[in-house]
Amino acid sequence: MNSHVRSRFVVSVRKIDFFYLIGWFIFFAPPIFYRISGMVTSLLRYGGCAYIILLLLLNRKRSIYKIKPLFMKCFFAFFLWATAMVVIKSPNQIATFFYEQLMPVIGVFLLINSSVNDRHTNIEKKLEGLVSLYWLSIIYIVANFMTIILYPNGIFRSSVGSSVERANWLLGSKNNQSTYIILSVLIILLFMKKKIMNRFLQELLIIVGTVSIFSTGENRVEFMSGSSSGMIAISFLVVISIFLLLNKDIPFTNLKFKWIYLMILTVYFLIITGTTMPSIKAFIENVLHKSMTYNSRTLIWQQALHYIARRPFTGYGEIQIWLSVRLSSWLNGTTNIYNLILKQLFDFGMIGLLLFSASYITLPKYDDHKYHLVIIGIIAFFILGLMNEIDWNYLVVFPFLINKVFCSHNSYKPPTSAEEAIGNGYRE
């Protein structure tokens, strides 16, 4: 393909992309669908199983299951360990664990490996396979913002996933919004230089998504009342991404991710134990505008650490333990731990946390601005995880992209003959 044709390249939508769009929706369905009724939840769960079977059948002649990189093997080992702990420690939670955690991970893995064409040596062409996720990201940002405008007090109120009743919109309450928006904004950023949509509209979508996180409060739409960790995470993602898109050097993008991850763990330690440190206290009270209980989170963490000390190596599996929370003058409780690292430690012990950490520490390094964007997305989720739990499908989507888009970048060898190229469906 000559340079003239390459410069005029426009991403096209194929019929198969509509099939992929359905899959991305199933595995990243907004919370509102799970809270409509039990029947809708069952449809999404069984639909996810059926979709995975269809993906396996459609790709039965393709090799889409490779996990050669070390970090992918670590992820695989972590999921095996987690599954074993659930089976042994909390067998009555096996079905819930499969539908809510394991099935979305399997679905995301198969979707990425099926849609991203690693026969291309060009990274941008590989990303074309994610065009369905790109359009779903746009739909989520626009539709969610419309529900915020039309229903300023929330479409409904719910205490699901929280210790208090909160206003909910399409993408859930203020604590749910951030995960969807961060993923959607990052996908739009990856496509920023594509000729799918006017660049101004893409930038507008990012602004709209960011405003959504800042505006969705506990009870109604009120600017600067959203999730504090979510606001910091999306601000970090957008600001750093602007520098990357302007080809400005960002010092930490030259670091191997293992050093970034170790810095992240240090921040987690400071946040969890920071109630006794004046500098951390000032940051929490003056920047995050929270009390030194971090809205009762430190009380929850202290109780969680007490339980962790009883089973430090293996954890509790998916068992739910009621943790007391004092809100104003009354006592409530929650089964959420509100911290990504503590959650892994509580559920799967130190062995699970070591495998989980190894999955990120062993991430490879590539000198490519799109790779840097993906790393920024991972960091944003870890920032969000400081005071929230993050579902596995969000934690694996970017590493799985690294595996399929970047790790196979230098490993694929084009076919040596025209006959082989036609037989494999190769297109340059």
Automatic annotation (TrEMBL):
The UniProt record lists the keyword Flavoprotein: no
Name under which the protein is recorded: O-antigen ligase family protein
Domain of life: Bacteria
GO molecular function, one term: ligase activity
Organism per entry: Diplocloster agilis
Coiled coil: none
Domain O-antigen ligase-related positions: 223-356
Pfam families the UniProt entry points to: Wzy_C (PF04932)
